[in-house]
Amino acid sequence: MDGNGRWAQRRWLPRAAGHRAGIGVLTPLLETAGEAGVETLTLYAFSTENWARPEQEVSTLMKLFLETAREKVPELNERGARLRFLGRREGLPASVLEALTEAEERTAANDRLDVYIALNYGGRSEIVDAARRIAADGLAPEEVDEATFASYLYAPEVPEVDLVIRTSGELRVSNFLLWQIAYAEFYVTETLWPDFSAEEFVHALESYASRSRRRGGV
Ligand code: IPE
Ligand code: MG
Q1: Considering the domain boundaries, does residue 216 fall inside one?
Q2: Among 76, 120, 171, 201, fewest CB within 10 Å belongs to which?
Q3: How far away, in angstroms, is 1 Cα from ligand 2 center?
Q4: 35 conformational bin, left if phi > 0, alpha if psi -120 to 50, beta if neither
Q5: Which domain holds residue 74?
Q6: Is 2 one of the catalytic residues?
Q7: What phi, psi does 191 have (nearest 5°)?
Q8: What are the strands, taking DSSP E only, across the chain?
Q9: H or E element: which one contains 68?
Q10: Cα–chain center distance at 121
Q11: How far apart are CA 71 and CA 23, in angstroms?
Q12: What pTM was computed for the model?
């Protein structure tokens, strides 16, 4: 969900105002995802690299995550969305973890839409953490194939990613779901995240639907 800072900058507002505006996109997005029959949606909220931002911005973001959890979880729950956390729990403030765990428990039985919140998430750290746990479990080399490896990822039930939507025109992967995006299609838009609309989301889904995916075949 990139471009919050630039959105604010263009309006001579503090970056926090951009992050706040970005939260406004969530409700229409979730509504549209449900209507369009999307089964899984992952929101990249905070990466393992984002700790490098000024301390004040990091704490503002953490505060916003808490606020958003309080505000949006009842709504998500009503929509039948199941919320799951994706990332490294170590390093996150206890209050944020608590809110996430509570949201996971509260929505656990829902089955209309799976929503993953990638927080303190890094694709490389996910792979490293999986490798560590495989080693800790004492697996023999010949036991480690792609399916076994995938079962050690943070959320093994996360399906392979079909479509990555990248806002603010950046042409990079930024450590997002590295394992799961192996065959993902990309939709890149210049739109800054706070301006990303339900209409454009539908447009992205249509763009995806019109492509022919060959997965290395012909
Ligand atoms: C949101 O956008 C990303 C996070 C919530 C960490 P940015 O804060 O990266 O916005 P830009 O790139 O400065 O425009
Ligand atoms: Mg950015």
Answers
A1: no
A2: 171
A3: 8
A4: alpha
A5: 4-122+159-208
A6: yes
A7: -55, 135
A8: 40-47, 81-86, 113-121, 163-166, 185-188
A9: helix 55-78
A10: 8
A11: 10
A12: 0.95
Active site residue 175: no
Mean pLDDT of 121-134: 97
Domain membership flag for residue 141: no
For 168, the token pair is 């603010």
Instruction: Return the ligand number nearest the Cα of 52.
Output: 1
Q: CA-to-CA distance for 98 and 170, rounded, in angstroms?
A: 33
Pocket lined around ligand 1, Cβ cut-off 6 Å: 1-6, 19, 46, 50, 61, 168
- Cβ distance 83 to 26 under 8 Å? no
Q: Which numbered ligand comes closest to the C-alpha of 193?
A: 1
Between CA 143 and CA 134 the distance in angstroms is 10
Domains in the chain, number: 1
Q: Name the residue type at position 85.
A: F
What per-residue confidence (pLDDT) applies to 217? Answer: 87
Cα 13 from chain centre: 26
pLDDT tens string 140-163: 999 999 999 999 999 999 999 999
C-alpha distances (whole Å) from 91 to each of 21, 57, 98, 133, 137 are 26, 16, 13, 19, 24
